Fold:
Amino acid sequence: MERQIKVLVTKIGLDGHDRGARVVASSFRNAGMEVIYTSPWQKIEDVVNITLQEDVDIVAISSLAYDHLIVPKLIEALQSEGLGDKKVLVGGIIPREDEEMLLNAGVKKIFHPGETLDSIVEYVENIMGKTSMK
Amino acid sequence: MEFLGIIEGIKSGNKRALARAITIVENNEENYLELVSKIYLSSGKAHIIGITGSPGTGKSTLVDRVASKLHMDGKSIAIIAIDPSSPFSNGAILGDRIRMSNSQKNPDIFVRSIASRGQVGGLSKSVGNITTLMDVFGYDCILIETVGSGQSEIEIMNLAHTTIVVTAPGLGDEIQAQKSGIMEIANLFVVNKADLPSAEMTANQIQQMLHTESVIKRKKVPVLLTSALEDKGIEDLIEKLEVRWDEINKTGERERIENAHATYKLTESLKEKFLSYIENEILNGAEWNDIFKQVMDRKINPEYAANHLFTRFLKKEADV
Ligand SMILES: Nc1nc2c(ncn2[C@@H]2O[C@H](COP(=O)(O)OP(=O)(O)OP(=O)(O)O)[C@@H](O)[C@H]2O)c(=O)[nH]1
Ligand SMILES: [Mg+2]
Structure:
């Protein structure tokens, strides 16, 4: 039986605009993944807790208003709980000058506006070792 | 994490081990049967509570409030929240956590979201195994929120000691419930959204229907009003849960329930084994095509053909 990819799609920080997160979550679902979806404004410790309990493979953070700046803290918290193997992705409005900082902190990949949903899905399938069926 | 490490981890309260074990069971990974077999030996302590009812009646919100309150009372709590998988993509959006804000903020409450994966029967198998893992981990109460439709409502009865059926005013659920037989599986009836008008009326209608049934079946099912949104009626519900747990432990009812559970699990597992065996031995067997063609040509009736195939199969087995 094929193992299904499990993704957490969530938002941290103060911004509550979650349309983008919803669209991405639907794309993951349509590609056959199982998506844990939460309300926005999650605290770092909540995200760590969800990641641990749900044993997801991917933690996808949507950020439109500088919430990405706390992602390094999230990664640190994940690592200190022994969850360093989870792949953290960030999508949304991320200034180019912050990219390096995020990647150095351990973010696997950053998706900017204009990225197609297909390519996001494909990326996830690739890092999870599943070849796209298309 | 190594296999033995996982078993040790579960027994010593390592949540990561529990989470990993659930994934192994969910995906039928290589070692899953060995894992659950080992774990099963230490199981049988938790009160397993199923929560079912139509979509949108407030099951997740209610589970959240009940879990928080039970936790405050000193109980350790795990939640299994099941959402449907898409029949088209097999993917799922597991969104029950959105309504479980209290539990989500409380790291002592273990919440696991599960996709139904479109399996009939199979779902209760993996959920049953997950329940066992949580039980051995040491949770006092395990709350299972089902997909609020179809067969899962009836299936939950084969896993839970206590089944709560949740409804809300204005759904016309009262009539539907009577038709679908769901009244019969309820140990507790909850009319949620009691903050809305006509909740009382809904409760009365249900009470009346249950009254008729209880006369026949000699079973009394409490009907409670709650507002999960306003956190009202939760204490009453918890009291009823505790009374029931005490009662079924004292009266031997628990043994009767677990007897039914064991019967169900054992026969379902056997059926599964037989089915896959039959698939290999008969459906892929030499005679199948020939018999099938005769059925299609209306030379043999399907039931007769099945009898014939089965007799031949038994004879072949006896010869081996
Ligand atoms: N007025 C009112 N609304 C409620 C109450 N409980 C839940 N709701 C609302 O009802 C909607 C559905 O609640 P959920 O808890 O997601 O219901 P559910 O039965 O788990 O839904 P599914 O899992 O989708 O079947 C949400 O908008 C809740 O805020 C209540 O007591 N009163
Ligand atoms: Mg729900």
User: Anything to note?
Assistant: Residues 264-319 of chain B form one domain. The interface with chain A takes residues 15-16, 19-20, 22-23, 27-29, 85-86, 88-95, 97-98, 101, 104-105, 107, 110-113, 115, 117 of chain B (CB under 8 Å). The CA atoms of residues 77 and 141 of chain B lie 5 Å apart.
